[in-house]
Amino acid sequence: MRMRKLTLLLFICSISVSANTFVKGSPATTNNDDSCDIAVLPAATLLLPYFEVDFNSPQTTAMTTLFTIVNTVQQPQIAHVTIWTDWGFPVLDFNLFLTGYDVQAINLYDIFGPRGTIAPPYGTTNEIETGLRSLDNDANPNFIAASAANCAQLPGPIPVRILNDMRTAVTTGIYDYSCGRNVTIGGKHRNAAGYVTIDVLSDCTLTLPTQPDYYKELLYDNVLTGDYMWISPNSTTGNYAGANPLVHIRAIPEGGPAGVVTATELPRTFYGQYNPPANQAADRRQPLPSTFAARFIQGGPGAFNTHYVIWREGLTGANAACNDYARNGSSEMSVRSVIRFDEHENPTTLASSCLPLYCPNLTLPATSSTETGAALFPLISNSGDLGGWTSFDLSHSAANRSQNWVVVSMSAEGRYSVAFDALALSNGCQ
Amino acid sequence: MRTALLLATILFTAAAHATTIRNDDSCDIATMPAATLLLPYFEVDFNSPARTARTTLFSVINTSRSPQIARVTLWTDWAYPVLTFNIFLTGYDVQSINLYDILGPSGTITLQDRNVGSSSLPNDANPLFLPSAADACAQLPGVLPASFLNDVRSMLTTGRVASCGSSHLGGIHVNAIGFVTIDLVATCGITMPNDIHYYDELLYDNVIGGDWEIVDPNPVTGNYAGGNPLVHIRAIPSGGPAGVATETNLPYTFYDHYTPHQDRNTARMDRRQPLPSTFVARFIQGGTGAFNTNFAIWREGLTGASAACSAYSRNNGFDMVAIEAVRFDEHENPTVNSSEVRISAYQKTYVIFPSASSTPTSAGTFPPLSSSGDVGGWMYLNLANSSTGRPSQNWVVSIMQAEGRYQTAFDATPLGNGCSSTQAYTTNRPYPPVIGPAPNITP
Predict the structure, then answer these.
(1) Do A51 and A101 reside in the same domain of the chain?
(2) Which of A32, A265, A339 sits opposite B420 (nearest CB)?
(3) Domains of chain A: total
(4) Is the same domain home to A90 and A205?
(5) Are A297 and A166 part of one and the same domain?
(6) How confident is the model at residue B110 (pLDDT cuts 50, 70, 90)?
(7) Quick one: A232 and A340 in the same domain?
(8) Which of A217, A252, B132, B193 has the fewest beta carbons under 10 Å from its own?
């Protein structure tokens, strides 16, 4: 009798699996949040792969980057925002308390520019009133008890000294606040440049993703969505805008409290390099892919021209020393292969682009935006074509299938600009 | 006993984990090489000169070294297919099409030559091509005959064509409006997706990708451009020859209502992933001098294979009523169309969109702005219709523009994949059904 009950139990279990996942045939699953594919679907982590902010110019002409986050569920959420340099060093983090169905926009010019302010505090704390369809601000059972107090006071003006240090960190790579003046943790460029990650968390703390303790606070609910915009209002150098969804990185399996080790079938994860050694998949975030097909038009003055915006996983691990971050902007960040095809399918490679005194060897830091006409990329063929596409394998090496993301940004005539994700040729698990 | 419990644990655990790490093995719509590409909305002002005419362009890349044939079909906004042509893609080819070239004064479909690159295989090196492909693909499109071009223009602007008498096949608008599908096929023919014989030619290799741009060069009405990836719809399982009905675990498919329905396998013969029905779409509705938003919405029609001309009005009719739209402002205040607060069984504002449309978020079709003064927020769109017997398929693009110089276009976020079940109508009550992502496990 007991055996029969067990058989029945097993049979029920089998049905619970086979109703949505399949022993044979394809797809293996029709469930949500059950694959390695990076899709625009509610996620537990959002990645803004590249930002650029001209904080020295007045707002009327300053290039800036904005992003918006939406909480798609009725429960409140805590979105932990981390701003990284272009060499993958985290310079600033803050929390946005999202009431149920909340939407919160952040203009990075507000942070780096003269205001030096993270969103107005009254808009991002758990003190705010909820909407008619939203649950109360304490109605997320995955929040830890301390969050009630910790989320009551959220960001506002940034102290001047920290703001100045942040500005130098994202423009010169010098971050006196943490690293002194002799170590660089980012590249040199006129405008602030870097990338942003946004994670669902169980508390409003200032732990960084580079610290193993972060993975005791991280949550796994795929509930956030968002987009970003690059706006270039200067009528001489820009006069246009481009936008794209943020990269939506889902937790698989999703759900459950923070700090609990749950197995995942993902072979590696987005934050794998920072996870505690005892559980290198603690974040359960989908990994990003390494191979892409990215279209370009390189028409010269008066025509469309293209930048490739490329985010790359860095080499530094948890709690890395400041002087380690140079690795994320060094020749160690080489690219495995780049092939450019023109409109007549003529391929050019880095090897075929060697000049007598120069042979390009593509290395790209953790984030960058580079004109396709730059000498870094294979030369365009001599067919006369001005367009085509580029095949990227952005792995660091054959042995290191690192994570990457590519966005195609085209602009023309001081009035047209488009931005769209390049085609990923594989998911991040393959 | 212990073994049995362990087994049960393993089975439950397996259900909770990522059950596939393979490519092309889920219902998720991702920007990855696909077998079908959808341009969800196009608009072309073919009456104006090119320097001021709004137009739509798209590009298709063959990511494989084998040659491929892409069958392009232009549909009206009521999902009537008006024009089809083939793009022969050599290995690693890229082809761009400006719809103004086709619908404008030149009426020409211009494609690149077929010389292969040094990394590409020869043009006869795709073993899945039908024997007829060599001859059929030798002559590909050029200039459209004038009378045919006029018919195409008429169908895309007035919905009328002489061969369909008084029946409407599309809406009435100054500009040509519709959507485009691009499918991988085994030969160069002119069969269209609404013909069951199309599925004898369809191929299943996930190898093509692409993007689209809406360009509005008129400095008075536009002066900007927006671009986005095409919707990449993969064949699952991928591969294999044309005309073979291979089993798929997809519950239904993108071309489901056109495929032969002799049995389960033929009904899903296209093996294309289905598109979802619920979306989160952000808006800014700032008025003059600020950002304003249009939602470009593609919706699966109701007409089946070889439908009569008179049937296409259903694709803009009462049967296309969407389940609901809820607008949230920046303070999470929800609004619905006023008469959706049902004070009478007879009073209700229906949310109806045809198969392809672009509608300002300020239009009365959508719920009004709240009284908070906020001009931005997001909208929940449950676009499933009640006539399909399963969640109907949809796609939403949020297009924002401002100041005669900024335009952006990006996909709205689906709240589930296309295999998720229908989400029920929600209310202001905080208990189920509520707005949110579809369940992790498909019911």
Answers:
(1) yes
(2) A32
(3) 2
(4) yes
(5) no
(6) confident
(7) no
(8) B132
Question: Are the Cβ atoms of B249 and A28 closer than 8 angstroms?
Answer: yes
The answer to whether residue A7 is domain-embedded is no
Minimum distance, in Å, between the CA of residue B317 and any CA atom of chain A: 30
Specify the residue for token string 């691009």: B182
Q: What is the pLDDT of residues A97-120, one digit of tens each?
A: 999 999 999 999 999 999 999 977
A289-345 per-position pLDDT tens digit: 999 999 999 998 888 999 999 999 999 999 999 999 999 999 999 999 999 999 999
What are residue A110's phi and psi, to 5 degrees? -65, -35
**A contacts of B14 (beta carbons < 8 Å):** 17, 21
- Residue A371 to residues A299, A333, A386, B148, B189, Cα–Cα distance (Å): 12, 19, 14, 43, 40
Domain boundaries, chain B: 23-273, 275-443
CA B1 to chain centre: 52
Q: Are B86 and B70 in contact (CB under 8 A)?
A: yes
| CB-based contact A31 B17, cutoff 8 Å | no
Q: Are residues A238 and A112 in the same domain?
A: yes
Structure tokens, B256: 């489901």
Higher-confidence residue of B120 and B222: namely: B120
Report d(CA A347, CA B65) in Å as an integer.
Answer: 12
Mean pLDDT over the full length of chain A: 92
pLDDT digits (tens, 9 = 90+) for B18-53: 579 999 999 999 999 999 999 999 999 999 999 999
By C-alpha distance, the chain B residue nearest A343 is B94
Interface test with A, best of B9, B23, B216, B419 (most A CBs within 10 A): B23
Closest-CA residue of B relative to A341 is B92
Assigned domain for A405 exists: yes
Please state the rounded mean pLDDT for residues A260-272.
94
B338 phi, psi to nearest 5 deg: -50, -40
Report CB contact under 8 Å: A245, B31.
no
Kindly state the average pLDDT of the residues A167-173. 98
Point out the least confidently predicted range of A39-53, A155-169, A283-297, B38-52.
A155-169
Question: B27 in contact with A at a CB cutoff of 8 Å?
Answer: yes
Whether residue A18 is contained in a domain is answered as no
Listed range (A284-288, B164-168, B424-428) with the worst mean pLDDT: B424-428
pLDDT in tens, B385-397: 878 889 999 999 9
The count of other CB atoms within 10 Å of the CB of residue B230 is: 25
Q: What angle, rounded to 10 degrees, do the helices at B2-16 and A2-18 form?
A: 10
By the CB < 8 Å criterion, does B118 face chain A?
A: yes
pTM listed for this prediction: 0.95
Same domain membership, residue A366 and residue A224: no
For residues B349-373, average pLDDT:
92
Residues of B in contact with A246 (CB under 8 A): none
Same domain? A216 vs A345: no
Is residue A20 less than 8 Å (CB to CB) from chain B? yes
**CB A384: neighbour CB atoms within 10 A?**
9
Q: What is the dihedral of CA A145, A149, A150, A156, to 10 degrees?
A: 160
| Residues A418, B225: C-beta atoms closer than 8 Å | yes
Are A298 and A238 members of one domain? no
